[in-house]
Amino acid sequence: MGRSYWILLLTGLLLFGCGNGPLYSDFQSLENGVWNKDSIIEFETPELQPDEVYQMYINIRNDNTYPYSNLYLITELEYPGGETYIDTLEYAMAEADGSWLGKGYGSIKENKLWYKENINFPVTGVYTIRIEQAMRKNGSVEGIGELIGITDVGLEIESN
Fold first, then answer.
1. What is the pTM of this model?
2. For 109-142, how does the pLDDT look when each residue is reduced to its tens digit (9 = 90+)?
3. CA distance linking residue 36 with residue 134, whole number of Å
């Protein structure tokens, strides 16, 4: 077989082997790796369709200064007409032995966390997602004012 055959085969594998990738992916960096309790991260989706099924993820990047093994978040999903749904979510960030979950080399780990699985949106339009940290120390009603070690917060949407 000639060289042209192998080049054509390799090109075909590269073209067909790659997925479509996410429909939407965005990150917002937190200044100095500190997430203030009053800081709300906001994302606006592209126009979503009611006949599609979507997977939504919250992506969190943390470094070695993050002092906890879990992360509590409050999310708000606002529909184009203004209807809003609020969730309180908990995610594991480390194993019981203290080793970080997530992917990445060095001191930064990226965690792709389920937010909404197999979701259909009722109307065509742009949706707004707001995310805030809801960490508290044991026995305390007050939230942690400055959560250290979270460097970036992201949102990713995939369509089936």
1. 0.84
2. 999 999 999 999 999 999 999 999 999 887 777 8
3. 10
- 26-59 pLDDT tens trace: 999 999 999 999 999 999 999 999 999 999 999 9
DSSP state of 87: E
Mean pLDDT, the chain, as a whole number? 89
DSSP string, the chain: --HHHHHHHHHHHHHHHS----SEEEEEEPGGGEEETT--EEEE---B-TTS-EEEEEEEEE-TT---SEEEEEEEEE-TTS-EEEEEEEEE-B-TTS-B-SB-STT-EEEEEEEEEEE--SSSB--EEEEEE--B-TT-SSBPSEEESEEEEEEEEEE-
